[in-house]
User: Fold this.
Amino acid sequence: MTRRILAVDDDPHIREVIRVALRKAEMTVTEARDGREALARLAADRPDLIILDIGMPELDGLDVCRQIRKSSDVPILFLTARDDEIDRVLGLEIGGDDYVTKPFSPRELVARVRALHRRAVGAVKGVEAPGSFSVDDLELVPSARQVLVRGEEIKLTTAEYDLLEALVKQAGAVVSREDLTRVVLGRKLAAFDRAIDMHVSNLRKKLGPGPDGAERIKTVRNAGYILVKAGR
Assistant:
């Protein structure tokens, strides 16, 4: 399957690096020089994934992400400066799926794009997805990547859905941050990497409390996270 990638950065050199790397990986790349052009390209080209620089003039990457998330769950991979931790955290909080820090290696960028896209398209070819998973009033339908709480659909990003599915499949058991990073983001957990923690925080807000009023996803200090069942 040809992947259609939209690369958004105000630096022409960065766009060239992205373009060359992804085309070598047999992906189709379109480009945008700023946030407004990115939104226009999104509507016209319907990309499978967006690589989005945060630090752009006028309409920055965070504002673009907010606009996109009003109507689309397309995977978003942020580009950030190495020392912009606040922006990285905020980017994930408002709906980004993952991030790469500048300067980045083209090989790492391609690997991140492939991992996000593979998860976005759903089940692995040749493997039949189960009908559904249920925990209390929470239901997941993997074939449609759909999440229902008390029968009402909850919109999640690609990373949020994959995180929830990983926790639901092991409901009642602790899943380590290392395992979640590997399953959800397709990479090893690095020092000071808070991506999974931010996705857990987002999930808690979107899912709300369980039927007993307690938090659905609990933190187990120095161990990981657990999706608890009501009354347990």
The longest strand covers residues 76-81. Residues 62 and 90 are 8 Å apart (CA to CA). Residues 123-128 have pLDDT under 50 and may be disordered.
